[in-house]
Amino acid sequence: MSRNLRVAVVGAGPAGVYAADILTKSELPEGIGGVTVDLIERDPTPFGLIRYGVAPDHPRIKEIVKALKRVMGNDDIRFFGNVAYGDDLKLDDLRQFYDAVVFATGARRDRDLDIPGIDLDGSYGAADFVAWYDGHPDVDRDWDFQPHAKQVAVLGVGNVGLDISRILAKTADELLVTEIPDNVYEGLRKNATTDVHIFARRGPAQVKFTPMELRELNHSPNIDVVVHPEGFELDEGSHEAIRAAKSQKLVVDVLQNYLAKEPTGAPHRIHIHFCQNPTEILGADGRVVGLRTEITELDGTGNVRGTGEFIDWPVQAVYRAIGYYSDNLAGLPFDLATGTVPNDGGRVIEIDGNPLPGAYVTGWIKRGPVGLIGHTKSDAAQTVELLLADVEKLTEPTHTERGAFDAYLDSRGLEYTTWQGWEQLDAHELALGQAHEHDRERVKVVPREEMVRVSRA
Question: What range does the domain containing 11 cover?
Answer without folding.
Answer: 3-108+326-416
